[in-house]
Amino acid sequence: MTLTKTKLLPIAAQVLLFAFSILMLYPVLWMVFSSFKDNSEIFAKSFSLFPTEWKFGNYAAGWKGFGSYTFATFFKNSFIVVLIYTVGAVLSSAFIAYGFARMEFAGKKFWFACMIATLMLPQEVIMVPQYIVFQWLGWVNTFLPLTVPSFFGIPFFIFMLVQFMRSIPAELDNAAKIDGCNSFMIFYRIILPLTLPGLMTAAIFAFYWHWQDFIGPLLYLSRPDLYTVSLALKMFSDPDTSSNWGGMIAMSVLSLVPVIVIFFCFQRYIVEGITAGGVKG
Amino acid sequence: MREKTNLLGYFYISPYIIGLLAFTLIPMAISLYLSFTDYNLLSSPRWIGGGNFSRMVSDDQFWQSVRVTFYYVFTAVPARLVFALAVAIALKELNFLKGFYRLVFYVPSLIGGSVAVAVIWVQLFSKDGVVNAFLNTLGFNIDFSWIGNPSTAIWTLVLLSAWQFGSAMLIFLAGLQNIPKDYYEAASVDGANAWRRFVRITLPMLSPIILFNVVMQTINGFLAFTPSYIVTEGGPMNSTLLYVLYLFRRAFQFSDMGYASAMAWVMLILISILTALIFSSSRSLVHYEGKGD
Question: What angle in degrees, to the nearest 10, is found between the helix axes of B257-282 and B26-34?
Answer without folding.
Answer: 110
